[in-house]
Amino acid sequence: MYGIMKRQLEVRAQDGNPIRVGFVGAGRMGSGAICQSGLMSGMTTSIIADLDAERAARAPSRLPAGGTRQLVEMEA
Fold first, then answer.
1. 64/50 Cα distance (integer angstroms)
2. Residue 68 is assigned to a structural domain of this protein
3. Which of 17, 43, 51, 58 is the most buried (most CB within 10 A)?
4. What pLDDT, on a 0 to 100 scale, did the predictor assign at position 15?
5. DSSP letter string over 29-55?
6. Per-residue pLDDT, 25
7. Is residue 17 part of a domain?
8. Are 33 and 26 in contact, with CB atoms under 8 Å apart?
9. Domain of 16, in residue numbers
10. What is the mean pLDDT of the chain?
11. 71 within domain boundaries
12. Reduced to 3 DSSP states, what percent helix, strand and coil does the chain have, rounded to the nearest 5?
């Protein structure tokens, strides 16, 4: 199954149509998931949300070049 998914993600990357992923929580587990998703072809992180605005702002530094870079602060 992994091979099938990998091929489908590669096709999406080649077509310029990656799966857009959003994360809620940029703590320890969220940061790890953000990093791993950034390494996958065919996926791009579109938004990262966290109650701690500074932690959410630091999270994109874990992404490879071209990841999420825009910071939008919102009130809870």
1. 20
2. no
3. 43
4. 97
5. HHHHHHHHHHTSTTEEEEEEE-SSHHH
6. 92
7. yes
8. no
9. 2-62
10. 84
11. no
12. 45, 15, 40
Predicted local distance difference test score (pLDDT) of residue 62: 75
Q: Is the CB of residue 22 less than 8 Å from the CB of residue 30?
A: no
Token readout for 19 is 């799966």
* 24 is a domain residue: yes
Q: What is the domain count for the chain?
A: 1
Q: Both tokens of residue 12? A: 């999406």
Asked whether 14 and 32 are in contact (CB, 8 A), the reply is no
pLDDT number for residue 9:
94
> Quick check: 73 and 50 in contact, CB under 8 A?
no
Element (H, E) at 57: helix 53-58
